[in-house]
Amino acid sequence: MQIITGTTQLLGVIGDPVQHSRSPLMHNAAIAQLGVDFVYLPLPVKANDLATALLGFVAIGLRGFNITIPHKQAILPFLQEISPVAAAIGAVNTVWRTADGWAGTNTDAVGFIAPLRELERDWSTVPVLILGCGGAARAVVAGCAELGCPKIAVAGRDPAKLAAFAASWQDSPWSPTLQIIPWSDLATVLPATQLLVNATPLGMAPQVEQSPLTVTALQKLPTSAIAYDLIYTPRPTQFLKLAQQQGFVTIDGSEMLVQQGAAALQIWLDQAVPVAVMRAALLTGT
Ligand code: NAP
After folding, report:
1. Average pLDDT of the chain?
2. Do the domains spanning 9-106+256-284 and 110-252 agree at the CATH topology level?
3. Is pLDDT above 80 for 1?
4. For residue 201, which atom of ligand 1 is closest to its CA?
5. How remote is the CA of residue 233 from the centroid of ligand 1, in Å?
6. What global pTM score does this model have?
7. Residue 137, pLDDT score
């Protein structure tokens, strides 16, 4: 059992809601395994309370925190240091205290590519199609660029949001590899897609019966395609069930969740962390 004393250092996750976050489970399991004097707490912070909460965190000496909806972008003006990957993504999920104030990065991109790196592929020959153009899609773009994928197509259903997404990458070095696709044109890109990523909530509770693509659409993919769903529960999602039936390699979002958490904990503790313990805690819920 983890013993909390007067010297225990504080970590946590801020967001609204955070009640259902699995991060405390995963991080505290690793902390217990390492035997370090830290604890990781869920810290509910409403959208309008971010500035006040940050002052409080300084006052109580909080060492670092993860960020979930709705603060991933709102945190940016409060940081004294932002990593290049977080700047490119335009969102931060991990913050730590430095002598100068708060520093932030985004570990979602490294989390996303971790299970892909386990596959034997020449990524320079793998064109990508990302479904959805929200926050997670941005980390996927960064991850695919890091892998060296030659073409990264992003499909969205809302033309205004899609245009804003395209504009936000204009000054990025990755801009030439990006292709923005209206949802209605998806079928034209599928035959040349080797990595298909669901970055929409379609398939997550309460939409567990839904898939962003039909079987007919999935049948347009090459047989060597990889289907990757960022959703981590249910496992598998309807999208991945359909993809499995077509014989594609499938990846769910659980490993991304574990690996983004492991990368964050490594920053805070400045030491290697037990990823297997974090994975087991997340998957078994204990
Ligand atoms: P988000 O910012 O809200 O973006 C969701 C995107 O999906 C938006 O582009 C949205 O379009 C689109 N979308 C929603 N419903 C749709 C529909 N019926 N048809 C087509 N497009 C639709 O959410 P997010 O933070 O990017 O998260 C996306 C998913 O990734 C969630 O399921 C989340 O749980 C998962 N995720 C997983 C991890 C992990 O570690 N595994 C990390 C981050 C996120 P509109 O703007 O038009 O609604």
Report:
1. 96
2. yes
3. no
4. 32
5. 14
6. 0.95
7. 96
Q: Is domain 110-252 classified as CATH 3.40.50.720?
A: yes
Q: What is the CATH number of domain 9-106+256-284?
A: 3.40.50.10860
pLDDT band at 2 (very low <50, low <70, confident <90, very high): confident
User: Ligand 1: which residues within 6 Å by Cβ?
Assistant: 108, 111, 132-137, 156-158, 161, 199-202, 204, 230-232, 253, 256-257, 260
Does residue 72 have an active-site annotation? yes
Q: How far is it, in rounded angstroms, from Cα 243 to Cα 225?
A: 9
User: Which residue's CA is minimally distant from atom 22 of ligand 1?
Assistant: 200
Q: Which structure tokens are listed for 215? A: 């079987």
For residue range 205-258, list pLDDT tens digits in order.
Answer: 899 999 999 999 999 999 999 999 999 999 999 999 999 999 999 999 999 999
Domain spans of the chain, in order of start: 9-106+256-284, 110-252
pLDDT on residue 85? 94
